[in-house]
Each structure stands twice: as structure tokens, then as C-alpha cells.
């Protein structure tokens, strides 16, 4: 160890310049040796695969040299090409769907032989309206995670995670990521969210990075339906060559040609030149280490390893991510067999949209032809055609004898049958029916339906497709939260502070570190270690109530419960019985509050009884009138059950036991007496 320490100190005095692979291999072997504490600080070695610095100079990336080299990269590239060939049809469909979304589908219609120069090319917005409404439903029900413990000892940690997890999502601008993912999901059928650890965030402290992933840049094993069962997973990205040369100076020629791999591209509206871009590949793969499966990660470009977790002694045995999963979550709209991706609304509705636009083309063309008259002109006619076509001329000259109508006559167009309009209407209705985008789901009504309850019932029935899609998105969101929690457990080595909003709306600051939810020892029994336990949590996802209609419903429900006396402490038992038969969001909190009110009321009643007994004893011994004063106070507050009723008053309980006072001499009292006497036999 002294020899190794001396060597690292000499390296500090004489900076090492990595010029060959042998130098890098020697540095990797040096990194394999147990350098800890002050020795690690002296060579500037970062504990989690960071940049190895000597004398303040960046000499190379820790993880470049080791078991993963150029031969492994070549094999990975062969596998990547096979994966790309296996998803060629999916890539073509995604690009076509994007053109449909932008209203550029007439190029595809023309390619099928439907082409006539000069014809109008209308693009109706029914498909766009369908996708926009589904996206609006999703954002109205933006997810909110709640972390629950599986063991009682983890309850405090689960409560803290429930508070800081939304903050981590907010810091990653997750609402925008969620929105972009939904747009992509509705168009292509699959939304992909990536959850990564970015060591460069927060000035090198590192933090979680959540972003949407394009399916054109992701490649998996053909024939699998679960992405976690793929042997390899590749994420390909195009980067500027000059940026790559500055960041990785040892790469000779970063580029797509050098890599022999091209990435599928969308049809851009602007001129996008990708010839000066380099292909950077993130390669994820799983290996068996003993009894467990670990996830490894390799980043390479142009055949050169930029970083490999197998080459990093900090991750060579444990894997890059402790959770052992690919950091990509697939949210499928309509599933397909044999692949982890699905199809979306563009695929299901574009056929009806084609014929709606074709019929619009025919109708518009007929309208244009009818609005602009055309004529048959005889070749030897003597009519002045220029004057005839000029509508500003009052007189049109012709030569010769005979009827001028024999030389020129208008072309008669046949009337457009109403059957064409009927077919178009049927296609529009088909598109709405297939997409579930009926009028009621958009807030519209038809004739004859005016009652609020009927409209609400139809809207509820029409939104079941949206609710089903949102539930699948909630399941994917829960998986995202699980990955975030696992990354916190692994990488949050230092204490971090999060600003949260407390239960009463006040601002609070919570301290959190990954050690709080890391693997913990069970203790020792009979001198033996009982083992280790990893805290496990459940993530429940609910809507944030972003919809104004949902918020209004919640507010009206709260006012209704208050008006019915559900929050009266003396009616806690009846209220809890009624709540057992009800179901709405947040009902558990209402039950808890009603139960607390009832418990507090019982305690107050017990205290009053004890105080009354004590007052009677004091009055008997001291000759005071405390008991009578307390009776008067309780009767005034209405808290004594056997207090005498006021003269001329009657007490009646409604269906939930609320007291309704009415004067017997009043109009209501006289009406009840009259009704009772009329119903009684004389």
C-alpha cells in the first residue's frame, strides 16, 4: 500500500499523458488497486466513475480501458444493425404518422395513384381534434405520486418520499416531459420516458434526469414484448462532430460514416443537415454476476469506447444501476403482439380521414367548377372571345349571319348528388366513433338533451376510453417513480434539502439522503449477523385535480357534506356509517377527520361529566353554586342531553340526526297540527 501511495504521489508530481491503449490499460490496472481516503483525494479519483484528474489536468475517462474494448464494440454494432433491421416497419410507420399529424398526408395519397394536377388538397382537422382532446384529458388528470410503506418501520421514510418525490419531478420539468410523452404516445402508439443519473447536473453534484425518448433512437431485440427481457438495448443519438472532438479528443473521426450506421429521420419542414453529425451509442446490457443479474452500460462512438461500467472498478461487480433495469419506461396505447411498442390513434383513424379528405376534394372541385363557367367554342365561330370572357364589356361583337349561340354554348355540370354528402357525414361519424371523441366528451350536446344529469351521465360514459388510457399512463408513471426512488437510494450520498408545502400550506425544508432508504442491517442475534433488509415502498398514483370541472365537483361535495352535518362531532358514528357506503377521491382523509372529531367529542363529554361530579361535591362541602352555573352554561351551549326544552319549541331530527327547531306557534307548526288532525279519525 505504501508503494502504491508513493506511486500515486509521483504521478501527482509528473502528470501522465495518455497516448496509447497500453498507457490506459496500465492506468486501469492502477485504478483497480484499493486506493481510499486521502490517497483517492490526492489523485483526484471520483468514487462513482468520474473523471480521473492528475495535477488538475484531465488525463482520461475512468472506464475507457478494460474488458470492454474495440472487439466488443464491433460485436455490439453488429447486434445494433440486426435490431435496426427488425424495427424497420415501425420506423416507417412512425415517420408516416408524423406527416399525418402535420397534415402532410396528401403526398401518401398521391403515391397511391390518386393524383390530378390542379385539384384542391383539403386537410380536415377531425384527426387532429381527436388527438388534441385526448391530450387535454391526460393533462387534466396530471398524476401525483403517493409513497406507501410495506413495513411499519419505513412509515417515516415513505412520508418524506411522498413529499420530496414531486419536488424532484418538478425540478426535472416533468410536466412538460409528461405532455411531450403524451403527444408522442397518441401519434405513434407508444410513449417512452427515460430515467437516468446525470453526474454533471448541479455543478457536478449530480442529480436525476428524466426526459422523453424518441422510438427512432431506441433499438431492442426483435420479437420480445417486455423491454426488460431484451438481451441488449441501444439508444442512439446524433451529436455535432466538433463537440465530440472537444469532449473526446482521442476520437479520430467521429461520424455516421465511420460508424457505418444511419439513424432514421423525420421529414422536417426546414432544411436539417445531419451530414456533420456523429453517431453516439449508449449500449445497455445485462450480465449474470453470481446469483443476481446486473445491468452494465457502455458509451461508444466511431468504434472507440468513451465509457464502460465494466471497465470502471466502482461498477465492475455491482453494475451501473443497482436496480438492474433498463432506464426506459414504455407506455403503450394499443398493444401489438411480438413487440414492446403499440399503435396509436393516427393508425386507427387515418383510413376514415383519407376518405373524408377525398370527398372534400371532390365536393370542393365541383364547387369551383360550378362557380367558374366554361364554354364549348366552335373552331370557325365568329364571336369575339376576348369580349365574351371580359365581364366588364357590355357588348360582344360577332361577324357573319346566323345564331351566335350555335358557335358557343356553356358546359353544363351535373348536379352533385346528396348521397356524397351522406357518405362524407358517415365517415366523419365513423372517425368520431372509432376514436371515442363524441360530442358529449367535448362538452357539446345534441337536440333533446338539456338536463344537467343527463349531460353529465353522457359525458361520464363518453370518457371511459380516456380513463382507460390515463390508467395505463399512471402505471407507467409509477414505474418512473420507482426508478427515481432507486436512483435516490444509490446516488444521493450527500444530504440534500428540498422545499415542500406542509399539510397546512406552510413552507418547509426537508433534509434527505439516500442512506435513509438504503439497505440496512437487521442486527445481531446470538453473536451472528441477521442479514440486511432493503426498504421497499409502493407508489400509488392519483390525479392532481387539474380539471376545473373536477375541482368544482370536489368543492360542491365538501359543501354538501358540511350542510348535512357530516362534520358534527356528536354525529360521528352516523357519518362514518354513511361514508362506508360512499366512494370518492380523498374519502380516507374525510373518514379520518370525522373519526378524530368523534373521539374528541367523547373526550369532552367525559370531562364534562367528571367536572359536573366534582362541582356537586364542591357545592356540598363549600356551599357554592358551581353545579348550577355549569348546568346553565351547558344548557346554553346545547351540550346537555337532558336539558329542558324551551317553551313553545319542539325538536325534530332529520334523516341523519340533525336537530331542526321550529316554533309550535309558527306557520310550519300550525300546518303540521292541521295535517295531523285531518289524518286522524274523529
Structural class: alpha+beta
* Low-confidence sequence ranges: 1-28, 30-60, 639-672, 674-682
What topology, given as strand order, has the largest sheet? 6-7-8-9-10
* Shape, principal axes of CA atoms: flat
Strand content: 15-25%
Distance between the termini: 114 Å
What is the radius of gyration?
Answer: 38 Å
Helix content: 40-55%
Question: How many strands in all?
Answer: 24
Task: Tell me, rounded to a whole number, the average pLDDT.
Answer: 75
Main sheet record: 5 strands, antiparallel
Provide an overview of this structure:
The N terminus and C terminus are likely disordered. With 682 residues, the chain is α+β, with helices and mostly antiparallel strands. A hairpin with a 2-residue loop joins strand 8 and strand 9. Helix 12 runs antiparallel to helix 14 and helix 19 runs antiparallel to helix 20. It is flat, with a radius of gyration of 38 Å. Among the domains are: 60 residues, no CATH class; 220 residues, no CATH class; 75 residues, no CATH class.
Amino acid at each position: 500500500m505504501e508503494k502504491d501511495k508513493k506511486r500515486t504521489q509521483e504521478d501527482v508530481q509528473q502528470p501522465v499523458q495518455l497516448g496509447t491503449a497500453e498507457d490506459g490499460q496500465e492506468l486501469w490496472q492502477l485504478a483497480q488497486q484499493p486506493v481510499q481516503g486521502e490517497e483517492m483525494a490526492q489523485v483526484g479519483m471520483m468514487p462513482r466513475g468520474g473523471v480521473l484528474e492528475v495535477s488538475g489536468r484531465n488525463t482520461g475517462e475512468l472506464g475507457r480501458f478494460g474488458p470492454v474494448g474495440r472487439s466488443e464494440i464491433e460485436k455490439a454494432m453488429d447486434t445494433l444493425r440486426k435490431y435496426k433491421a427488425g424495427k424497420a416497419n415501425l420506423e416507417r410507420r412512425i415517420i408516416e404518422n408524423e406527416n399525418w399529424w402535420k397534415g402532410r398526408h396528401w403526398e401518401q395519397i398521391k403515391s397511391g395513384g390518386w393524383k390530378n394536377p390542379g385539384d384542391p388538397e383539403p386537410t380536415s382537422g377531425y384527426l387532429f381534434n381527436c388527438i388534441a382532446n385526448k391530450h387535454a384529458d391526460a393533462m387534466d388528470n396530471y398524476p401525483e405520486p403517493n409513497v406507501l410503506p410495506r413495513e411499519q418501520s419505513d412509515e417515516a421514510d415513505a412520508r418524506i418520499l411522498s413529499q420530496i418525490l414531486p419536488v424532484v419531478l418538478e425540478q426535472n420539468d416533468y410536466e412538460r416531459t409528461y405532455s411531450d410523452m403524451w403527444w408522442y404516445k397518441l401519434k405513434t402508439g407508444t410513449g417512452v420516458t427515460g430515467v437516468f443519473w446525470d453526474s454533471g447536473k448541479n455543478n457536478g453534484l449530480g442529480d436525476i434526469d428524466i426526459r422523453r425518448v424518441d422510438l427512432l433512437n431506441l433499438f431492442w431485440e426483435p420479437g420480445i414484448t417486455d423491454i426488460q427481457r431484451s438481451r441488449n438495448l441501444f439508444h442512439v443519438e446524433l451529436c455535432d462532430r466538433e463537440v465530440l472532438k472537444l469532449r473526446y479528443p482521442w476520437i479520430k473521426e467521429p461520424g455516421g460514416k465511420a460508424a457505418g450506421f444511419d439513424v432514421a429521420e423525420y421529414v422536417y419542414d426546414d432544411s436539417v443537415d445531419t451530414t456533420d453529425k456523429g453517431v453516439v451509442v449508449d449500449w445497455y446490457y445485462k450480465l449474470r454476476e453470481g446469483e443476481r443479474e446486473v445491468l452494465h452500460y457502455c458509451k461508444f462512438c466511431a468504434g472507440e469506447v468513451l465509457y464502460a461500467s465494466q471497465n470502471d472498478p466502482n461498477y465492475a461487480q455491482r453494475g451501473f444501476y443497482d436496480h438492474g433495469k433498463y432506464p426506459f419506461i414504455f407506455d403503450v396505447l394499443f398493444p401489438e403482439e411480438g413487440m414492446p411498442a403499440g399503435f396509436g390513434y393516427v393508425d386507427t383513424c387515418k383510413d376514415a380521414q383519407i376518405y373524408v379528405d377525398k370527398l372534400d376534394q371532390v365536393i370542393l372541385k365541383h364547387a369551383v367548377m360550378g362557380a367558374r363557367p366554361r364554354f364549348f367554342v366552335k373552331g370557325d365561330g365568329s364571336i369575339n372571345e376576348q369580349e365574351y370572357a371580359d365581364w366588364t364589356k357590355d357588348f360582344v361583337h360577332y361577324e357573319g349571319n346566323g345564331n351566335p349561340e350555335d358557335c358557343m354554348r356553356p358546359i353544363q355540370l351535373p348536379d352533385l348528388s346528396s348521397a356524397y354528402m351522406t357518405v362524407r357525414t358517415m365517415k366523419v361519424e365513423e372517425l368520431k366513433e372509432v376514436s371515442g371523441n363524441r360530442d358529449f366528451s367535448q362538452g357539446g350536446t345534441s337536440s333533446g338533451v338539456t338536463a344537467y344529469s343527463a349531460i353529465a351521465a353522457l359525458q361520464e360514459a363518453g370518457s371511459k376510453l380516456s380513463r382507460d388510457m390515463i390508467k395505463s399512463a399512471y402505471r407507467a408513471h409509477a414505474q418512473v417513480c420507482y426508478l427515481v426512488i432507486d436512483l435516490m437510494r444509490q446516488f444521493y450520498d450527500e444530504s440534500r434539502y428540498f422545499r415542500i408545502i406542509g399539510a397546512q400550506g406552510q413552507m418547509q425544508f426537508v433534509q434527505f439522503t439516500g442512506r435513509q432508504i438504503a439497505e440496512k442491517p437487521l442486527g445481531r442475534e446470538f453473536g451472528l449477523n441477521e442479514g440486511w433488509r432493503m426498504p421497499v415502498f409502493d407508489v400509488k398514483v392519483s390525479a392532481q385535480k387539474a380539471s376545473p370541472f373536477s375541482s368544482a365537483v370536489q368543492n360542491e361535495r365538501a359543501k354538501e357534506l358540511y350542510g348535512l352535518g357530516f362534520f358534527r362531532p356528536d354525529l360521528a358514528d352516523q357519518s362514518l356509517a354513511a361514508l362506508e357506503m360512499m366512494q370518492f377521491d380523498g374519502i380516507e382523509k374525510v373518514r379520518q377527520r370525522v373519526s378524530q372529531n368523534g373521539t374528541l367529542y367523547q373526550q369532552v363529554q367525559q370531562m364534562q361529566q367528571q367536572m359536573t361530579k366534582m362541582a356537586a361535591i364542591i357545592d356540598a362541602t363549600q356551599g357554592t353554586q358551581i353545579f348550577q352555573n355549569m348546568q346553565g352554561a351547558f344548557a346554553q351551549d346545547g351540550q346537555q342531553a337532558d336539558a329542558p326544552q324551551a317553551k313553545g319549541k319542539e325538536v325534530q331530527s332529520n334523516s341523519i340526526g340533525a336537530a331542526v327547531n321550529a316554533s309550535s306557534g309558527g306557520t310550519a307548526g300550525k300546518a303540521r297540527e292541521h295535517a295531523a288532525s285531518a289524518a286522524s279519525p274523529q
